[in-house]
Design brief:
The complex is a heterodimer of chains A (594) and B (262).
Chain A (H helix, E strand, L loop, with lengths): L1 H14 L7 E5 L3 E3 L3 E10 L13 E3 L5 E9 L3 E14 L3 E5 L3 E4 L2 E4 L3 E6 L31 H4 E7 L3 E3 L4 E10 L4 E4 L13 E3 L3 E9 L2 E14 L3 E5 L3 E8 L7 E8 L3 E6 L8 E5 L1 E8 L4 E2 L4 E10 L9 E2 L5 E3 L3 E7 L2 E12 L3 E5 L2 E7 L4 E7 L2 E6 L7 E2 L13 E2 L23 H28 L1 H20 L5 H17 L8 H10 L4 H19 L6 H22 L6
Parallel strand pairs in A: 2-10, 12-21, 22-31, 24-33, 34-35
Antiparallel strand pairs in A: 1-3, 3-6, 4-6, 5-6, 7-10, 8-9, 11-13, 13-17, 14-19, 15-17, 16-17, 18-21, 19-20, 23-25, 25-29, 26-31, 27-29, 28-29, 30-33, 31-32
Chain B lengths: L1 H28 L3 H13 L5 H13 L3 H14 L4 H13 L11 H6 L1 H4 L3 H24 L5 H23 L3 E5 L3 E5 L8 E6 L3 E8 L2 E5 L5 E5 L3 E3 L6 H6 L12
Helix pairs in contact in B: 1-2, 2-3, 3-4, 4-5, 8-9
Classes of the chains: A alpha+beta (594), B alpha+beta (262).
């Protein structure tokens, strides 16, 4: 159980407010048992802090390795950082009698500072109950009396409730803070099984309630550390007279003991007392009363130093203070001449009873020149002074430049006086319909479109490559080009045979030329015997070769043997040659050379 | 002759769509927002996929008080034309009017910056660029075959990379993660596909969610903060594509039986 005390004292020191001098030393018990541990706590505050120098004390053993350490930072004046350091040391008396711990020195901001000396009385025998911390002793609202020592811990010490209000007498609408807290002993032996702590929240009829704020802190009470879960609501009385904040009913189960087999269980049914609040009515309000009750400040500013005709600028009015944000009504602004004023955008922020509400107006100047925005006024009831107050800011004067002529449309919320010769005010919310979208066509993607788009360039590329290769072959491979063109050239020449003076010669040259082109051999001096050998060597079809050779020899006889061929014979030979040509071209096709 | 006939038929049909569009505009101007929305929906059912149609439909739904459906249609308009500022503004306005103003799940900023050519470009433009780059790739290869141009290979590589990038973008846009918008005042979301179950959380009209599974009239939704649960598909307006209601229903993926509840 001593462990509670050590933690308790450390946390006491942690939560204690700063005092002069900046070094404070204390012990959790001024009367200690011999050979029983107690805690010596040193607390230091300042900007630059050293470690405490623990002196040697006759009759006392102090473990100079701090067992409890804590540091906190805070900023003062916005920029200067303050530190708070707490060190807890285990100590034990080795002899009875009076023991004095001399001042403990710590270097603070470059200078040595010392604590007050501490006097202890060491006795033999059992531990003495810890001294009570008068600053944190519990009141009669549900907390244990604090008579027990840590050794005499009762179930009631493990978990208890508190319910507090910061005011018992308020004006209607004035904020008051209700704090409900669950105090639970900070000990690893304790298990608390509970659902929603706020399930039995007190009845608060006649109050407008803010959202609940949950806060978790550690507190020391009667020398014991507690985890405190606070539920805070800001309440705004909506009616006058005596209102009651009901009792908070809390049910929970607590188990004590680390061991699974040695665990004790206790069911709690706790309740807090009720609070009676006297709500006084407000005095008769003035005509411009906004409805806000509390203490408020008003700030207003215009977003621009210079405006343009037809272009909106912003007037932001900020009301800050303690009060119900939902009751903060719109501030008073007199009509602004030559300008369109929109309904304000409202934005509220709350932090406990503090609230900030911003009203943002879009003001669109309609004429060039100087635009004067009259003073902004805000009337509220101040409960401290028990009277109505009016805060004001302004007036503001803003020079307005002439708008370009094209600028005729302003996107602003509609208002009754928003119609102006040069300003077309659109409706609130959304931008208008689109009237001319262009041609509307069904989007029905063809299943072959994507494959076609993918394949088309590939096929084009392949075709182009083949064509290019062929072209290059024609350019570079003469034999191929001759063989490829042999039939066409021969046909052309055979058609011309009929009109020639020496038709057999022309026919002969056409056929020899074909064979030479087709087989890639020299045409000049090629005889029918040469042709026969060449055809035999190429293993041409015998029938085709014979037909071809017969025509060729007939022409030879006419050319060299003096045999005259009639027109009909030439025609027949030409026809036979043409007929034979295709078949022979096909037969010799595989024999093309490169 | 047939080609002329088909061309005339197509022109007449196009005129019919534009007449329907004009009629919807008239209905909207007359304050009959429900009728205007129905006319626009009919156009969409006839495969008219145009950002202006979705935008105007969003406006009609907004005026008719159907915030969720309005948001879904602004999302569709922005899906087709990411630089459609009017749609962006109206969408923002609608989102501010939802109960919670929930943001939709968005890819991280670095991803949006890195893939700017994907996120900032309309699907039609991505498609055009992909086709142009694809043709450019093969044209550059052909030029390289024809003549040894020093930069043809680099151009081909660049065009190939761009074609893959834009092609991927087109595919991703054609198969986006299924976005849906709660289209009822409150939409309970359950841990599983059982309406008797305790709701896990609730969606409100206009809340945007990603649907990652569909199963027998149920959709598993994921919020921007990662919360997931099952809700009835009928409570959601699916953004698409596809945009037709029938197509949306058909496109639902059935999860494996053992994964119907997680």
């Amino acid at each position: 159980m001593a462990k509670f005390l050590y933690i308790a004292v450390a946390l006491t020191a942690l939560s204690a407010t700063a005092a002069d001098p900046s070094v404070t030393a204390r012990v959790d018990q001024t009367t200690v048992s011999v050979n029983t541990r107690f805690v010596l706590t040193v607390e230091v505050e300042g900007e630059q802090l050293g470690e405490p120098v623990i002196p040697e004390v006759d009759g006392l053993i102090i473990d100079t390795q701090a067992s409890i350490t804590s540091e906190e930072f805070s900023f003062s004046s916005g920029t200067r950082m303050r530190r708070s350091k707490v060190r807890g040391y285990y100590a034990a008396a080795t002899k009875t009698g009076r023991i004095e711990i001399p001042p403990i020195g710590v270097r603070v901001d470059g200078e040595m500072r010392y604590s007050e000396p501490i006097v202890l009385t060491a006795v033999k025998g059992a531990a003495v109950p810890p001294e009570q911390d008068s600053g944190s002793s519990r009141d009669s609202r549900g907390a244990p009396s604090g008579r027990q020592s840590s050794a005499e811990l009762t179930w009631e010490d493990l978990v208890f409730l508190r319910s507090d209000v910061n005011k018992n007498e308020v004006f209607q609408g004035q904020p008051l803070v209700l704090t409900l807290s669950v105090w639970q002993l900070a000990d690893t032996n304790l298990r608390r099984s509970h659902g929603n702590d706020l399930r039995g929240e007190p009845a608060m009829e006649g109050f407008y309630q803010s959202e609940v704020r949950v806060n978790e802190t550690y507190e020391v009470l009667n020398g014991r550390p507690y985890k405190v879960i606070q539920y805070q609501r800001t309440l705004y009385p909506t009616t006058t007279g005596k209102l009651t904040i009901g009792s908070w009913q809390w049910t929970g189960i607590v188990q004590w003991g680390i061991s699974l087999f040695n665990r004790q269980r206790h069911e709690f049914q706790l309740a807090t007392p009720e609070h009676e609040i006297l709500v006084k009515p407000l005095p008769p309000p003035p005509a411009d009363f906004s409805g806000a009750v509390g203490r408020f400040e008003l700030a207003a500013n215009v977003s621009q130093r210079e405006a343009m005709q037809g272009v909106p600028m912003k007037l932001v009015v900020e009301i800050r203070g303690e009060g119900n944000p939902d009751a903060i009504g719109e501030p008073q602004i007199d009509k602004i001449e030559n300008a369109h004023t929109s309904e304000p955008d409202r934005e509220a922020e709350t932090d406990g009873p503090s609230a900030v509400k911003r009203f943002t107006y879009a003001i669109t100047p309609l004429e060039r020149g100087a635009l004067t925005i009259p003073a902004v006024r805000f009337c509220y009831f101040d409960p401290e002074k028990a009277q109505y107050e009016t805060a004001s800011e302004g007036p503001f004067t803003v020079p307005v430049l002439a708008a370009p002529e094209q600028r005729t449309v302003v996107f602003l919320p509609e208002s009754p006086d928003g119609k102006h010769a040069t300003v077309d005010v659109l409706g609130p919310g959304i931008l208008p319909e689109i009237a001319a979208p262009g041609p509307l066509r069904p989007s029905r993607p063809s299943p072959v479109m994507a494959p076609a788009l993918l394949a088309a360039p590939v096929l084009g590329y392949v075709g182009f490559t083949l064509a290019l290769r062929r072209k290059r072959r024609f350019e570079n491979d003469t034999a191929f080009a001759r063989a490829y063109r042999a039939r066409a050239t021969c046909r052309k020449r055979l058609r011309a045979v009929a009109g020639c003076e020496d038709a057999p010669d022309a026919l002969y040259r056409a056929l020899v030329g074909f064979l030479a082109d087709k087989l890639g051999i020299e045409e000049a001096g090629l005889t029918s015997n040469d042709a026969e050998r060449a055809l035999t060597a190429r293993r041409a079809n015998a029938e085709l070769a014979n037909t071809f050779l017969r025509i060729l020899r007939a022409c030879e006889r006419a050319r060299y043997g003096g045999a005259q061929l009639s027109q009909d014979e030439v025609h027949a030979l030409s026809h036979a040659a043409l007929t034979n040509l295709d078949a022979l071209d096909g037969a010799l096709g595989k024999e093309r050379t490169t | 002759m047939n080609a002329v006939f088909l061309a005339i038929a197509a022109t007449l049909a196009a005129n019919g769509f534009e007449r329907s569009f004009d009629r919807a505009l008239e209905e909207y101007k007359a304050g009959d927002y429900v009728a205007a929305a129905a006319t626009y929906e009919q156009l969409i059912a006839e495969d008219i996929v145009h950002p202006a149609v979705f935008y105007n439909l969003g406006n009609a739904y907004y005026r008719a008080g159907r915030l969720g459906r309005a948001i879904a249609n602004y999302e569709r308009a922005l899906q087709l034309e990411p630089r459609f500022e009017n749609a962006r503004r109206n969408l923002a306005q609608c989102v501010t009017e939802t109960k919670r103003g929930l943001a939709r799940a968005q890819p991280p900023d670095w991803q949006r910056s890195l893939l700017f050519w994907h996120y900032g470009v309309a699907p039609r433009t991505s498609k055009t660029l992909a086709v142009v780059c694809w043709f450019g790739l093969w044209a550059a290869l052909a030029v390289r075959q024809w003549r040894k141009t020093p930069y043809a290979a680099y151009i081909a590589v660049a065009a190939g990379v761009l074609a893959i990038a834009f092609g991927g973008s087109v595919w991703a846009k054609a198969h986006p993660e299924t976005l849906a918008v709660a289209s009822e005042p409150t939409v309970p979301v359950y841990y599983g596909t059982d309406e008797q179950d305790t709701p896990h959380f609730e969606l409100f009209d206009g809340d945007r969610v990603v649907v990652d599974r569909r199963h027998e009239g149920w959709a598993r939704v994921v919020l921007a903060d990662g919360k997931r649960g099952w809700t009835r598909s009928r409570n959601l307006a699916f953004v698409g594509p596809p945009y037709k209601v029938a197509d949306v229903e058909e496109s639902g993926q059935s999860p494996p039986a053992e994964e119907s509840v997680w």
